[in-house]
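<amino_acid_chain>
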Amino acid sequence: KARNLDLARGLLVEFDQTKLGFRDFPDAAIKLADAYSSIGDFAEERGVYRLLLDHLGSSGQVRFPNGDSASSEYSYAGVLERLIASLSRAKMRDEIAALYASEMKKYADEPRLAENFAVWLAANGRNAETGEIYRRALKQFPEKTWKDRYARWLIREKRTAEFAEFSETVINEFDDAETKEFLGEFFGDRT
């Protein structure tokens, strides 16, 4: 059985390398990963996920689709979830952090990677790294939502001095109406 799986993996790699447009590539890869998992070969399972992740990430498709399809097992997001779940079951937290860092380097234009990484880091008590991801995301994605997320994280973590410094930076960027709105979100009608 393992020999058949190795043969299937070889064919999958060949299809990916030759870019023959094998339409069912994601389905075949997921089934192969599931087969490796069923025989307890989790390293091979994760290897297939990594191959599929690279394939889907560079395919030009939306990596994190909106709506119900966001966690489709055939999307980049779905395969990333599967790979992280496999690493998580094996308690490979450093590998998860390395995976996120690697994917963020490859797809620097993808804000959902930064968002998911920050959430994962916070959930795993890696606060210094969480703050660093938020600060990098603020530089890379200047949208208001990142300012909100970072400010809320600072408040949750009771980082009062950092919040005061960040608030001052934000205030200097806004006009009076934007400042009042931003501060109103955190302090209510006391602004």
Q: What stands out?
A: The mean pLDDT is 83. Residues 65 and 92 are 27 Å apart (CA to CA). The chain is about 75% helix and 0% strand. The first helix runs from residue 2 to 18.
